[in-house]
Amino acid sequence: MSEAEDPPSPKGIPLLGNGLSFSKDPVGAMESWADHGDLVHLHFMGESMYLVTHPELIKQILVEKQHKFTIGPEQQDTFEGVEDNAMTTATGERWKRLRRAAHPAFTRESITNYGDRMAAVTARFVDEWDDGEEVALHPEMHRLTVQILAETLLNEDIRGQEDVVIDAADAFIARTNFRRPGQLLPDWIPTPTERRFRRAIQRLDTFVDDLIAERQAAETDVSEDVCAMLLGAYKDGELSLAEVRHNLVAFLMAGHESPSGALTRVWYLLDDHPDVYESLCEEYNRVVTGDRPTIEEYTDLEYTQHVVAETLRLYPPTTGINRQATGPVMLDGYELPAGAQFLIPQWVPHRDERFWEDPETFDPDRWAANVDRPEYAYFPFSGGPRGCIGNDFARQELTLALATMVGRVDLDVTTDGPLTFIPSIQLRPATKITAVVRQSTQ
Question: Which of 200, 257, 281, 375 is least surrounded by CB atoms within 10 angstroms?
Fold first, then answer.
């Protein structure tokens, strides 16, 4: 037991505590707070939370003592009205049942079967760009990842309908913006942000309902995508129709947001590191034998995988993971009470100089070395039993999509300032990033 009764607590301001600095700059605030220790006690308006940034403590919460924690109320409140019946917000036996129903779509074998289609969709997408055309990079990556997701996990070509998903994601980001006006008001108050969110989610719900109805009306469904598997579980009485719908909504929302952000940031980084881009091109020419990479060539795209891993290290998808103690728990020598909430950010341990040499430097070669570091110094898609079910899917998608793009186009990237992020649940770029398309000379 620590001699102190409570972990160190960074100074805040009256009433708002640490909340103001977090709303202004979440990642900067978390980096500053972590200087006080690996476990610090934060105070926000009306509540408190513990920031956990050491890999060993993170592993205790997510893995070793995971039975003593559950998802926090912040996560449930965030997804209220969107994924109430999805595994995102479920706990206990219900979460296990939902995870079990979706798992067959995310086995290594299933994900491998999606590989060639991931590359084919990417090739088709970038081939629609004109030489010399200027594109808004992040919106375009949204469109691409929605198309990949729909054609792999749903077996649907939704070209021309991507905005149904993208608008819902945009409205969700706006709703979870830590600085939005009216953030502290109850959700039932019809603020403009809340009205926009409800409209966008209703459109997405209707879109998914129509998709489900079309599948149910089909005489046979021999596909092995996630929609077919969830509907199979519904027919077997394992899932309700609401659970099918909300899990499909969850896959569409989260399944395109993180990869689109990663692809945007990787091209931002490549523009500043032409040597890395040249190495990617060299690997493409050496490994890829056709007009785009195949799943058989995926393993040999080793450097491309390192670029993806390094991008996810520097710029993880989310602000952090939320957990709540179900009973009193000992952590880092402190006895913490039942109901204690924990914020576990990837950003801080991903850039901690105790575990990474030159942590602020973009260096894909660091992944070629066998370095002994704590497991949870790197966890872009969370970890433990509740780790992201689409972890392997996203890594494969990012590798094959990036390689396909490198083989077909070169992007001359321009930003309107330093890379900053919307202060929200997702680390979505606030900086405008554009790119001029040049047909590849590969």
Answer: 375
